Amino acid sequence: MELRQLEYFQFAARLSSITKAAARLHVAQPSVTVAIHRLEEELGVTLFDRSQKQISLTAEGRAFAVRAEDILNRVRDAVAEMNDYRLLQKGSIKIGIPPMIGAFLFPHIIARFQKAYPHFELLVAEEGSLSIRKQIELGELDVGIIITDNLPTRLSTAPLTDGQLMVCLPHYHPLGAYSAIPFTLLRGQPFILFNEDAYSRQLIMTECQRNEFTPDIVFSFSQIETILGLVEQGVGISFLLDEVSRRHPRIQSRPLSDPLRLQIGLVWNSDKYLSKAARAFISFCTEAFPVLE
Predict the structure, then answer these.
(1) Labelling 91: which of 61, 70, 78, 213 has CA 20 to 30 A away?
(2) CB-based contacts of 81: which residues, under 8 Å, 6+ apart?
(3) 141 phi and psi angles, rounded to 5 deg
(4) What CATH number belongs to 87-160+264-292?
């Protein structure tokens, strides 16, 4: 049994597809197929049910997946720890941050951190909070600065700040006459939202459901400037954190009469090995952040 076989099996199990696993691993599809077949032959069990269009784990496959993930995590942790010893005071940190949080919070943290630790390399992934959570759980990212509401229990967090979602409107919009907007008045308004991996979008969708209407989503984007530009041109309304909306005079923003508040914090997986660089970043943020407020 080879570690490569376990890795191929793990990706195929996560993605329920040999083809997608091969693409993610940047190998030919037959390589994954052969590796999994040889693994099944060695174990003497069938790991995947191939009777449907999309493969799924058998009972034996589910049991083996737990063991395989533990083995691969231990190997990755061991390699990371040895890299720490080899690199000594050098290292890299893989950080995830959503565009909306990055717009107002990330530059301050990074400027101060790089001044204090110029030898560390920061590798930044700009994605939605939900996507970042998943990548931290899988060990693909070291830490995230994300919305921490309803976090999975396996993730650890240190609070940084909070905020509320504001309704963002063109300057001439009639809803601007309200000091605080009831959510029911948003029925029928064209919505411009972040992509589906954004927690703020999920929150807005839940609020629409609670108020018994389906939102008219005209566009979805990941970039704040695009959303702001469309709001400014009257294409639709959107929802941004107060810290972000107040920095943009091109639009007007109003709170909701029943505020949607969000907690923002530093998140990491305490079940996985954290490099010295990642631990230094966590310590720096938790100690230095009060100075940033």
Answers:
(1) 70
(2) 273
(3) -125, 150
(4) 3.40.190.10
